Amino acid sequence: MTTPLILAVLVLVAIAVWQLAKIFELSQLTTGKKSDATIADDEDNKYNGYLLFAFLVFIYGITIFSFSKYGKMVLPMPASEHGVDYDRLMWISFAIIFVVQTITQFLLHYFGYKYRGAKGKKALFYADNDKLELIWTIIPVITLASLILYGLYSWTNIMDINEEGDPLVVELYAQQFNWTARYGGEDNVLGDASARLIDIDKANILGIDESDPNAVDDIIVKELHLPVGRKVNFYMRSQDVLHSAYMPHFRAQMNCVPGMVTQFSFTPTVTTEEMRLQPEIIDKVKRTNKIRAERAAAGEENSDPWEFDYVLLCNKICGKSHYNMQMKIIVESEEDFQKWLDSQKTFGETVIAVP
Amino acid sequence: MAHEAEHHHKETFITKYIFSQDHKMIAKQYLITGLIMGFIGIAMSLLFRMQLAWPGEASPVFKALLGKWAPDGVMDADIYLALVTIHGTIMVFFVLTAGLSGTFSNLLIPLQIGARDMASGFLNMLSYWLFFLSCAIMLGSLFAEAGPAAAGWTVYPPLSALPQAQPGSGLGMTMWLVSMAIFIASSLLGSLNYIVTVLNLRTKGMTMTRLPLTIWAFFVTAIIGVVSFPVLLSAALLLLMDRSFGTSFFLSDIFIQGEVLHYQGGSPVLYEHLFWFLGHPEVYIVLLPALGITSEVMSTNARKPIFGYRAMIASILGIAFLSTIVWGHHMFVSGMNPFLGSVFTFTTLLIAIPSAVKAFNYITTLWKGNLQLNPGMLFSIGLVSTFITGGLTGIILGDSTLDINVHDTYFVVAHFHLVMGISALYGLFAGVYHWFPKMFHGRMMNKNLGYIHFWVTAVASYGVFFPMHFVGMAGVPRRYYENTAFPMFDELTDVQVLMTVFALIAAAAQLVFVYNFIYSIFYGKKGSQNPWKSNTLEWTTPLEHIHGNWPGAIPEVHRWSYDYSKTYDDGSYIIEGQDFVPQHIPLQPNEEELNH
Fold first, then answer.
1. Which CATH number fits domain B25-253+263-540: 1.20.210.10, 3.40.50.720, 1.10.533.10, 1.10.1380.10?
2. B258 to chain A nearest CA, in Å?
3. Chain A residues with beta carbon closer than 8 angstroms to that of B256
4. Assembly ipTM
5. CATH 2.60.40.420 at A168-350, yes or no
6. How do residues A64-102 score in pLDDT, each as one tens digit?
7. Interface of A with B in 27-46 (CB under 8 A)
8. Which has fewest Cβ within 10 Å: B117, B395, B436, B551?
């Protein structure tokens, strides 16, 4: 239904542009100027100078508009320990970008407007100034150096994956087009696994080595539960193509690469229940459910009311259903987590013994 | 010299227009082929933008253009990925590499350095026809039975290696790889020719520090190409072998569609390294020529020398060197050693410094100028604007920490479209408006249509890509066929519609350009020999193209190309009544050579 509308708009825009061009040309004729519509004259410089200034206002405008209208749609507060650090660095970077963007766009467009050409005007022959070059080399150097240092400090902390503080060990397993999670079980150690050992007939979908004693108590699930406040070490695998385990609320992402095990680690700090009570989430859910209610009224799909949940998305192109490769994440208290974990079957219980 | 001024070939239609060895004709062939590819690439982007704005909705447009890929007029998810893939490939390689660099390097290198032609006319011709062949194969792949390549323009294995993984990884992918291999051969032939020509065929007096910045940009771009394109060739060939001959360069431990494959010991991460060893320099292969064009167009139209000529050369060289050691910033979360990530963060943020120097120098070039706001000039100013807006977010993406959460989201898409897509396109347009009279025998494009083209494009491209940053910060991954599977993205539907509408408007504005371009080739008003009152040598050649460029001797060069508004101490112009001094004019009495 929208397509004809769009086409109509396009045709109208094209016609409008066409007419504008005609009017432009005609007005040039009637004013009796001997302009041949090829090289800018004083009149063109004037109008385009004004337009450059107007464009500056437009850039500021679209910035303010986007921040006020879409600013609230960005990811909510981080739900992991390092996420707080991440967001701080992000906002510092944004502040710098914002200042530089505002100033440089102003200078660029303002100069374009201020120094628009006119007959008889003389440009200044100004070819060089080592001092200026030095200034605008040194200032970025200092700014970038501090950002690099801060960034590298955070990076080293985030990527330092170690066994300190009794981390929970979880494997994230990717395949076209779904996720599976595996816990180490009682011993918190994952059994060896390889795509070569996959045996669908025996329900060994992750290719776990049955002879490895660590594997018997492993727990395989389709919903990722994490205890709040405890460090989680993730080990990622993929059985077919590249995938990427993207957990945006935790500021976490790592690719899953066939043939190797990749790692990431974070400590969840906010339970799903707590997150749902955050004012920004309450607002977001309200806004979203309004849209979904409208859809329901129109009899469209995806219209059932939504309740906030953390989610794991695939963020590396992996094929047809890449856009719907997800797994729910639930962050809960240690006791709830243990209770849930105890209710799950172990690999030893689910694998079908060799007949 | 082999070419004598009076030397005339007997020309047939075929040697003049098709298998021409004349650099000016080859430049036009590159331009027109590049523009045709560009319009195909842009049309594809409109199709997938429509799908993103109105997910799953049937459309007669889809039905007409996609045929069996749009059953009942609804776009299929596989073809969505194919469109994204081919759009990226066409725009990056065929339009912004060959179309931009191929056109203007060919046109301007001999004309601006004062040479009769390229060092090797034959290699030049070969380079174009290989490019044409690779275009034909790439377009041919659209008609492959199971669809064209659909693994993203980076074609990461195993997705691109295994026909079981997606339909596009069959014949379509083979054709993609063959097309790219031929494209690389073409690009290498072109680049070597540019390098040799610039080094050997400069006219008398044209020292390296008198070269226009356009030539510096093309020259350094060619060097980057020669250094990095062969690495992509090796990646493409190894991938072909993995696909066709069962080798395991990039594959290991794969279980797909119920069976374990034999591949053992390879790594997709190796492919990523090889790909981005070209892939990142490629950004500068696209961007540097656009910046070179901007330097020339901006200085000419500002009636001022480019500010900081030597700093500009230094930053081009700095960017070129750094561009070859930053590729890893595309791979922070690929699973490579985090220490490597630290190194690449460091080098990546370093590259912001020469880029910043360039931006500041452009702004200062405008200061106290006498700006002639021709369409080419507006596109140059527009380029600096989008280069800054897009470049600044590079500070976030180049920082390994911050990249974790915005990697592969729409934030990246917004960033690179502004900084290299739109900027380089603006450079292309600036060049076309500026050198159109040089290409088409003195005919000029209509400026009013040019103004409409610029202003609509400028507003609409910010309209598409500025809000897109927020979509990325909301966590929306790129290359999603639709976002309906995640209720958390529901409220972004309006943004998607807004961006698509702006994209449609921007595309409509390009039709104005097409009309202006074609109309002006045949009916454009003839201008003077030097319409923009420019200093560079190409404007000393006659309007009608001749073999060997200059009817008489090649002019000798006595100064740099930026003596605009140069005056004596008493404030009078060097040449009375004229605010520019072309390069072939000898130093006047009492004039000091101010070659900064």
1. 1.20.210.10
2. 8
3. 176, 239-241
4. 0.93
5. yes
6. 999 999 999 999 999 999 999 999 999 999 999 999 999
7. 28, 36-40, 44-45
8. B551
